TrEMBL record:
UniProt keyword annotations, A-Z: 2Fe-2S, FAD, Flavoprotein, Iron, Iron-sulfur, Metal-binding, Oxidoreductase
Protein name: 2Fe-2S iron-sulfur cluster binding domain-containing protein
Taxonomic lineage from the root: Bacteria, Pseudomonadati, Bacteroidota, Flavobacteriia, Flavobacteriales
Known cofactor(s): FAD
InterPro entries cross-referenced by the UniProt entry: 2Fe-2S_ferredoxin-like_sf, 2Fe-2S_ferredoxin-type, 2Fe2S_fd_BS, Beta-grasp_dom_sf, Cbr1-like_FAD-bd_dom, FAD-bd_FR_type, Flavoprot_Pyr_Nucl_cyt_Rdtase, FNR_nucleotide-bd
Source organism per UniProt: Leptobacterium flavescens
Length: 350
């Protein structure tokens, strides 16, 4: 299983008043560990005020650039994002996990396709990598970006996106959407059903899109996804990645009273212990000081996926795994309760 590695910060650049772009130095001996696909993310680990924090941030650079860059937007009460924006500087060291994630684009230089993306706020970060990769490596393909923010000043990568439209005027169409200011040649409001219809049924009604990439808050993703499916887009052509999730979580559908005997397999080691069924599996594993993979702990990344090889678990929320993956025994351990008296989960077999 890939491990964390100490990387030095190459530089930090102010992106907007509330966001920064962070670049890392990759030593030659770690180059292979940090090969990535457009759209993937890395997990950062840092101890602040005695607490270990782990946060996942999407890569915004392209693999062909030779750079490993991420965008970090400062959020209210965000301990790590505040540190990254206010204190992180060139020469500082962070523990960085090798790239992960399935919200990806695999470029094909001979392809001729149309790709569209709907992004809001910091949801632009993986889309930047996907968009730039397609434009650079697929000369016969086109990209449409719909990007929502409060204002121009809060729009991450605004100048870079405008420069890309000038560099690829025949292949890139960008629609900025602002909810708190009206600007010429932009849309006013939020990304909603009317926005999707305007793009797919008006501006690009004659284009057949091969894939849609959605990234941002859960409400936006649900709205866009539902509208696309109502308009006849197959679900397998819609890829999404959440950057924020709803706080409301349903109760488990089965009883979580009592205890279970759990066996955990990670890094070729087996550890057994007793846990309460009412506890989430990842919480119980971490309480035992087991170095299991995790990042967001909110069910919006895929770092904590494991396979149930004996027994059964129920997830209170699943916005990542497909029905087929769940049928194969995969679970998000941060969202799962054991519901049998014994269970074995394997972090290595994923």
């Amino acid at each position: 299983m890939p491990q964390f590695h100490s990387l030095k910060v190459k530089n930090t650049t102010q992106n907007t008043p509330s966001s920064v772009t962070v670049s890392f130095d990759i030593p030659q001996e770690l180059k292979n560990e940090f090969v990535f696909q457009a759209g993937q993310y890395i997990t950062l680990k840092k101890t602040l005020n005695g607490s270990e924090l782990r946060r996942a941030y999407s890569i915004c650079s392209t693999s062909g650039s030779g750079e490993l860059q991420i965008g970090i937007k400062k959020v209210t009460d965000g301990r790590f994002s505040s540190y990254a924006n206010d204190e992180l500087k060139e020469g500082d060291t962070l523990e960085v996990h090798s790239p992960e994630g399935a919200f990806t684009l695999k470029p094909n230089p001979s392809a001729s396709r149309n790709i569209a993306a709907f992004a809001a706020g910091s949801g632009i970060t993986p889309v930047m990598s996907i968009m730039k990769t397609l434009l650079e490596e697929e000369p016969n393909s086109n990209f449409v970006l719909v990007y929502g923010n409060k204002s121009v000043s809060e729009t991450m990568f605004h100048n870079e996106i405008v420069a890309l439209t000038e560099q690829y005027p025949d292949r890139l169409n960008v629609y900025f959407v602002y909810s708190q200011e009206q600007k010429e040649n932009s849309l006013f409001g939020r990304i909603e059903r009317s926005t999707v219809n305007y793009i797919t049924k008006n501006k690009h009604k004659d284009q057949a899109f091969d894939t849609f990439y959605l990234c941002g808050p859960e409400e936006m993703i649900q709205t866009v996804s539902e509208n696309l499916k109502e308009n006849g887009i197959d679900e397998d052509r819609i890829k999404f990645e959440l950057f924020t999730s709803s706080a409301d979580e349903p109760a488990p559908a089965v009883s979580t009273e009592g205890a279970t005997s759990i066996k955990v397999i990670v890094d070729d080691e087996e550890i057994s212990f007793e846990m309460k069924k009412s506890d989430r599996i990842l919480d119980a594993v971490l309480a035992e000081k087991i170095d299991a993979p995790y990042s967001c702990q909110g069910g919006i990344c895929s770092s904590c996926i494991a396979r149930v090889t004996e027994g059964k678990a129920e997830m209170v929320k699943n916005q990542i795994l497909t029905d087929g993956e769940v049928a194969e025994g995969l679970i998000l351990t941060c969202q799962s309760h054991a519901v049998t008296d014994s269970i074995t989960i394997d972090y290595d077999d994923v």
